[in-house]
Amino acid sequence: MLELDDIQSGVLRPRPSPYVATYILLRIDDARAGRELMRRLCSAVNTTAQPDNPDADCWLSVALTYSGLEALGVPRDSLASFAWEFQQGMVARAKALGDDGESSPEHWEAPLGTRDVHVVLTALSPGQAQLEAALERARQALHELGGVTAIWRQDCHALSTGKEPFGFKDGISHPAVEGSGIPGSNPHEAPLKAGEFVLGYPDETGSLPPMPWPDALGRNGTYIAFRKLHQRVAAFRQYLKATATSQTDEELLAAKMMGRWRSGAPLALCPHHDAPDLGADSARNNAFLYSDDPTGYKTPPASHVRRANPRDAAVAGVVRLHRMIRRGTAYGPELPEGALEDDGAERGLMFAFIGTHLGRQFEFVQSEWVNGGDFLGLGDAKDPLAGANDGKGVFSIPKRPIPRRLKGLPRFVVTRGGEYGFMPGLRALRWLADLRT
Asked: By the 8 A CB rule, do 27 and 78 touch?
């Protein structure tokens, strides 16, 4: 059984929809102050064991970077027991993640990707009023605490459309995790082993994932990849208009690139037209597989959602080994509907990817499925929406008698920064608070 009272709510609990969030980055200048912060956060951070709590969808969570653990004075043998991708940090992994050109770390928003980022606080709730309650807990934890400095903040919000900046319904897919008691969104997907998302439990291989030492530090923790992704909404609209033959065709092309209609209705269930009622129905809008569509006449194999989660496809080994929990929410102003010119504003998504294997989950999906095409026989074709395209990108749409091929795809998503974090369990927070040098 999962020790839900020791696992942060931000690890397993599905986000509310819609929701708002605030990310705060902290720098630890004094180890004793940092440990006191860990002590205070023990009573401020929410756990997953709150099924009947009316505020269960309003939580504060905490993660630490590798340099943050160093700043707290974690012993060297413990530091060496963490995943090597985490030890290296996201900047060192940029090439593997496709963060090149405009997305390369030298262009990232400061202080993202620097050794000054030690702690990531995330407050999340269905609305602004509840968010303020979570933020107040963060303020109390930091109150009159010299030696810990807030160095960055990103406020995120639900758009008036209820969708993400490109115009698609978001937050649809969430896996079921054995022992959590929280249902997944796809009834055709068997619950995944807890060890894929929480350290200290068997994963899909039947083994315990490598866990930081000692057990008091590693157990019930997990890894998280934070990403700030700028979305070029005007460029996406311009591409659709220049490529499509009509307004109807624009919507079809957008759906084919995403794998869903803007309403959230999946092409797998309604390939020829949008179905807003289906898109809005959380009991049906993710209830599908791809086994009846191997060629991709309904959902192109190269589409974003099929790349990110091929479901029952027999590709690249066992798909279940690469599943993650994904969460994202928008930042920045909306580009007015119909506008085709970029207004220069920063807008996009703050994303969090959660799993116990940074290498075979987040990094594998990013490098092999998003920025590669070999696993589906697509050559070097990248994800049409999220891939690191360079103006020469291609996207194939299976069609009888002749497939449709889009060319000249630019980069629609640019990385503004990111961090690898470790989300400790509540007992681990107390262990960190009790460190002595």
From this structure: no
For 191-222, the DSSP string reads PBPGGGTSTTS--TTSSPPP--SSHHHHTT-E
Question: How much is the pTM?
Answer: 0.96
DSSP for 2-33, please give it: --GGGSBHHHHSPPPSS-EEEEEEEEES-HHH
Q: How far is CA 426 from CA 42, 132, 220, 248, 304, in A?
A: 6, 22, 8, 51, 36
Tens of pLDDT, residue by residue over 270-314, are 999 999 999 999 999 999 999 999 999 999 999 999 999 999 876
Report H helices in 80-224: 84-88, 94-97, 128-142, 215-218
Which 3 state secondary structure label does DSSP give 241? helix
| CB atoms inside a 10 Å sphere around CB 392 | 9
285: left (phi over 0), alpha (psi -120 to 50) or beta: alpha
Nearest in space to 207 (alpha carbons), one of 196, 222, 192 = 196
Q: Does 261 lie in the same domain as 245?
A: yes
Residue 380 in tokens:
């070097």
Residues 220, 241 share a domain: no
Angle subtended by helix axes 426-433 and 31-41, to nearest 10: 150
In a domain, 338, yes or no: no
Distance CA 126, CA 20 (A): 6
Alpha-carbon distance of 406 to 322, in angstroms, equals: 28
In tens, the pLDDT along 148-200 reads 999 999 999 988 888 999 999 998 999 999 999 989 999 999 999 999 999 99
391: left (phi over 0), alpha (psi -120 to 50) or beta: left
**What domain count does the chain have?**
2
One domain for residues 22 and 121: yes
Domain shared by 12 and 76, yes or no: yes
Alpha helices (H) along 273-354: 276-280, 304-308
